[in-house]
Amino acid sequence: MKLLVATTNKHKLKEIRHILGVKVEGRKLNVKENGKTFEENAIKKARAGARKFKQLTIADDSGLMVNCLDGLPGVKSARFATPPTPKNLCQKLLRVMRRCRANRRAMFVCVIALARPDGRVRTFKGIVRGKIIEEMRGRHGFGYDPVFVPNGSKKTFAQMSPAFKNRISHRARALKMLKSYLWARSSVG
Ligand code: ITT
Fold first, then answer.
1. How many Å apart are CA 137 and CA 118, to the nearest integer?
2. Which fold does the domain 2-188 belong to in CATH?
3. Model pTM?
4. Ligand 1 atom at minimum distance from 145 CA
5. Is the C-beta atom of 56 inside 6 A of ligand 1?
6. So where are the chain's domains?
7. Given the CA of residue 89, which atom of ligand 1 is nearest to it?
8. Which ligand 1 atom is at minimum distance from the Cα of 29?
9. Angle between the 170-187 and 10-20 helix axes, to the nearest 10 degrees?
10. Is 141 in the pocket of ligand 1 (CB under 6 A)?
11. In DSSP terms, which residues pair with 111 in a beta bridge?
């Protein structure tokens, strides 16, 4: 089965390829991400890809929701700092969280939308809860990985090997559900 991934983010594409373990092609699309939820944006991106390329297409909309910031940066995670380098994103987050001494809780959310060329769509959501530490640690990954420590770990996502992050991440959880869905559909024909 041929699957396209509609994304402009090469780090996401690399993780998606690694987690799915199958060959998927990446396609860049210019889609305005103005939805209020991860679901809305993921559906918009996947549908645009499926319509344009007439192929089964997935898109990932993801981000970090910080408890003491009422869920921000949330759907605006990619554009929280300019330019949105990992250093700028993490430093801005650490700066605005100076008032969040007692509550550093956060979660990474990933919604994967699977769209068909006729517009039919399904979504799969993965969440990882954890906390934001007070400085950047680690060199792997992208985005907010250097400041996020998942529950049950002492390491940030950026201190883990990519293979380990790809086993436990929000993206891994969402894609696992997608895989089960696709597998169940293919085994019944
Ligand atoms: P596409 O929409 O083209 O796929 P994007 O980077 O704009 O790429 P999003 O709108 O979904 O994607 O924004 C997600 C942002 O959330 C991403 O740019 C990172 O800053 C952050 N993010 C998501 N998953 C992450 C992860 O696994 N590790 C670190 N940061 C992550």
1. 44
2. Maf protein (3.90.950)
3. 0.97
4. 29
5. no
6. 2-188
7. 20
8. 3
9. 50
10. yes
11. 61, 125
| CA separation, residue 98 to residues 73, 91, 134, 143, 152 (Å) | 15, 11, 9, 19, 24
60 in catalytic set: no
Confirm or reject: Cβ of 164 under 6 Å from ligand 1: no
Return the residue matching tokens 């979660």: 107
Sole residue written with tokens 């390491």: 155
Residue with tokens 């645009």: 48
Q: What are the tokens at 89?
A: 């994103």
Per residue in 55-111, pLDDT (tens digit) is 999 999 999 999 999 999 999 999 999 999 999 999 999 999 999 999 999 999 999
CA distance 162 to 27: 22
Residues constituting the chain: 189
* Residue 181 CB coordination number (10 Å): 14
User: Is residue 145 within 6 Å of ligand 1 at its C-beta?
Assistant: yes
